[in-house]
Each structure stands twice: as structure tokens, then as C-alpha cells.
Amino acid sequence: MSKKQKLLRQILNNCQNVSFKDMVSLVEAFGFTLSRVNGSHHIYTRPEIAKLVNIQNVKGKAKAYQVKQFLEPVETHNLTLED
């Protein structure tokens, strides 16, 4: 099992206290690319998905509700990790 798979499993069990760096790594592993940064908001997109992924870095952690929001399109579109 890869590090990203372990991280995904950890996040699925508990989306609290996820480091921003780990979250960025996971978002990019699912094929999203950084579209823009607006203040503390890092906006990621994927061409075939209309929903944007927004992640904020708050003292090195990603906000829990944004982690949950990221998981929605992953599950809806059956996205897989790209290693």
C-alpha cells in the first residue's frame, strides 16, 4: 500500500488534523491541478469535473469541512489515485 493510499484511508476514517501538505499531495494524486490561489484559498480543478476543490492552509492544517468537500467528487466520479 502506497503512502497516498494510507493517507486516503486515514482521511476517510477521520478528516480532522490533516496537514495541508498531505492534503495537497492527495488532491494532486487524484488528478487535480492548482488553478489559482486567492488569498489563503488554493483552488484546484480537473477538466471533466465542474466542481472546484478549495483548500485553505490554516497553521499547517487543512480545514476539515474542505477535506469532506474534496471527498464528494472523488466518490461521485469514482476517481482513483494516480501514482
Automatic annotation (TrEMBL):
Pfam families referenced in this protein's UniProt entry, alphabetically: HicA_toxin
Domain of life: Bacteria
This protein's record includes keyword Nuclease: yes
Keywords for this protein: Endonuclease, Hydrolase, Nuclease, RNA-binding, Stress response, Toxin-antitoxin system
Keyword hit for Nuclease: yes
Family annotation (InterPro entries): HicA_mRNA_interferase, HicA_sf
GO molecular function per UniProt: endonuclease activity; hydrolase activity; mRNA binding
TM ranges: none
Family: Belongs to the HicA mRNA interferase family.
Protein name: Toxin HicA
